[in-house]
Design a protein that fits this description.
With about 425 residues, the chain is α/β, with parallel strands linked by helices. Helix content is about 35%, strand content about 15%. The protein starts with a helix and ends with a strand.
Length: about 425
C-alpha cells in the first residue's frame, strides 16, 4: 500500500464505522407484538415451579416465539405488557412487566414472566437467523455435562426390575452421564422420616453409591430440605469420606439465608441450593459470600433468559457454578443456549432420558449423557401446535402504571 492509498483508507474508516451500526440495525425490522396465546400440553405439570405450559408470542411481521412456564392467570397478566411493544426491546419489556402492577411478582408470576421472556429471545434469534447462544456471545464449551434425576438403568433391565443403588450408579456412569444422583434415604410418600436415625442409613447408601460409580466417578445427593441444621451437619460430615460432587438443599429453604453460611464453615462437602428460588434477590448474598458452591436456579423460574444471564454474571464474579434444576423441555432447550456461554462449572439435571416429546419434534439435542447446542435459529424448538390445546389469548395492552426517568428508562409510579 502506498502513502496515497493509506491516507484514503484512513479517511474512509470513520464512514465505515458509522455505516456498520446502521446495517446491523437494519437486520432487525420494525415490529410489534400483536398476540400472546397460551396452550396446555398433553402432559401438563401442575407444579407451578415446574410448569410446562406453552406460550407463544406473535408479531406483525409473521414471526412467532415460543416459551414455557407459568399458569393461565399469571401468563395473561404478564402478557398485557407485551402487546404493542417492539419485541426486540427485551430488557425494557422485562422491566415494565416487573413493575407495572406495583407489587413485585412472587415466584409464581416470575415463572410466567420468564416464559414470555423465552419467547422474546426466540423471536430475536429467528429474525436474525441465529441460535440464542450466538446472541449471548457464543458457546464456551463443547457440550453440557448432565446427571439424570433418577439415574440410568442397565441395558436389558426391565422397567419393573428392582435395582440396587450400586447397580443404578454404575449404569449411569456407563450411559455417559457426569454424575449419579440419589435422594437422602428415600421413604414412600406419606411415610415416617426419622431425621436423626436416617443419618446412618444415608451414610450406608452413599458408601454403596461410591462403590457403584467407582473411584473416579461422581455422585450427588439431594437432602430435599428434610433435615434441620444439626442433622444436616451430622449427615454432611458422615458422607464426607465418600466425596460427593455436591449436597443439594441440605436445610429448609426458609432457613437457607441463615443456615447455609453456618453449614459452609462446618463441613467440607460442596453445597448447592435453590430449586425453589425465583428472582436473583432470593440468593445473591449466598453467592456473593460463597456460602454455596453451586446454585440450582433454573428457567423460567428466575424470570427468563434476560435474568439468567445476570445470575450467571454474579456467579462468574464469585466463582460459583450453576447446576439448574430440571424444568420443562422448552425451558431446558433455553438453558442449554444460556449456560453453554457461561465460563464456570455447569451440570444439567436432565430427566427426559433421550425420550421423544410428541408435541416437540425439534427441541433437545442430547446424546450419551450430554446436552449439545445446535444451529437452529432462536431456541431451536419446533412445536406441533395441533397436539396442544389453546386455553387463553391476550390481544389488548394491560396495566402500565410506570414513570420514566429523564433518559426514558422506567421507574415505579
Amino acid at each position: 500500500m502506498n502513502r496515497r492509498s493509506f491516507l484514503r483508507a484512513v479517511a474512509a474508516a470513520p464512514a465505515l464505522a458509522m455505516a456498520r451500526p446502521a446495517r446491523l440495525l437494519a437486520a432487525l425490522p420494525k415490529a410489534k407484538i400483536t398476540r400472546v396465546r397460551i396452550y396446555k400440553p398433553p402432559n401438563l405439570n401442575l407444579l407451578f415451579n415446574q410448569s410446562n405450559m406453552v406460550a407463544t408470542v406473535e408479531t406483525d411481521i409473521g414471526v412467532t416465539g415460543i416459551g414455557e412456564g407459568g399458569a393461565k392467570d399469571t401468563l395473561e397478566q404478564c402478557a398485557g405488557t407485551l402487546i404493542g411493544k417492539n419485541p426486540f426491546k427485551i430488557e425494557a419489556i422485562w422491566q415494565e412487566a416487573y413493575i407495572a402492577w406495583f407489587y413485585p411478582p412472587g415466584r409464581e408470576k416470575t415463572h410466567a414472566l420468564g416464559a414470555l421472556d423465552l419467547a422474546l429471545w426466540d423471536i430475536k434469534g429467528k429474525v436474525l437467523g441465529l441460535p440464542v447462544h450466538e446472541l449471548l456471545g457464543g458457546s464456551a464449551r463443547d457440550h453440557l455435562e448432565c446427571y439424570a434425576t433418577g439415574g440410568a438403568r442397565p441395558a436389558g433391565a426391565s422397567a419393573t426390575e428392582k435395582l440396587s443403588l450400586r447397580d443404578r450408579a454404575r449404569a449411569t456412569m456407563e450411559a455417559g452421564y457426569r454424575a449419579f444422583r440419589m435422594g437422602a434415604a428415600d421413604v414412600p410418600i406419606g411415610g415416617v422420616y426419622d431425621q436423626r436415625n436416617m443419618v446412618k442409613r444415608v451414610a450406608q447408601e452413599c458408601a454403596e453409591v461410591r462403590e457403584g460409580v467407582g473411584p473416579n466417578g461422581d455422585w450427588c445427593i439431594d437432602f430435599h430440605q428434610r433435615f434441620d441444621l444439626n442433622d444436616a451437619l451430622r449427615c454432611c460430615r458422615a458422607i464426607e469420606q465418600y466425596d460427593p460432587y455436591f449436597v443439594e438443599d441440605p436445610v429448609r429453604d426458609e432457613h437457607a439465608l441463615q443456615d447455609l453460611p453456618k453449614l459452609r464453615t462446618m463441613t467440607a462437602v460442596p453445597l448447592t441450593h435453590g430449586e425453589e428460588w425465583g428472582l436473583k434477590w432470593d440468593f445473591n448474598r449466598l453467592v456473593e459470600n460463597h456460602d454455596v458452591d453451586y446454585i440450582r436456579s433454573t428457567l423460567p423460574n428466575v424470570g427468563g433468559i434476560t435474568e439468567m444471564m445476570k445470575v450467571a454474571g454474579i456467579c462468574e464474579t464469585h466463582a460459583v457454578g450453576i447446576v439448574p434444576h430440571f424444568t420443562g423441555p422448552i425451558a431446558t432447550a433455553a438453558l442449554v443456549n444460556c449456560l453453554a456461554t457461561f465460563s464456570g462449572p455447569v451440570m444439567m439435571e436432565y430427566n427426559f432420558g433421550g425420550r421423544p416429546i410428541d408435541y416437540l419434534p425439534e427441541c433437545l439435542d442430547f446424546k450419551n449423557g450430554k446436552a449439545y447446542t445446535n444451529e437452529r435459529p432462536g431456541l431451536g424448538v419446533t412445536a406441533d401446535m395441533k397436539l396442544l390445546t389453546q386455553i387463553g389469548e391476550v390481544t389488548e395492552p394491560g396495566r402500565r402504571n410506570v414513570f420514566t426517568r429523564r433518559d426514558g428508562s422506567l421507574t415505579h409510579w
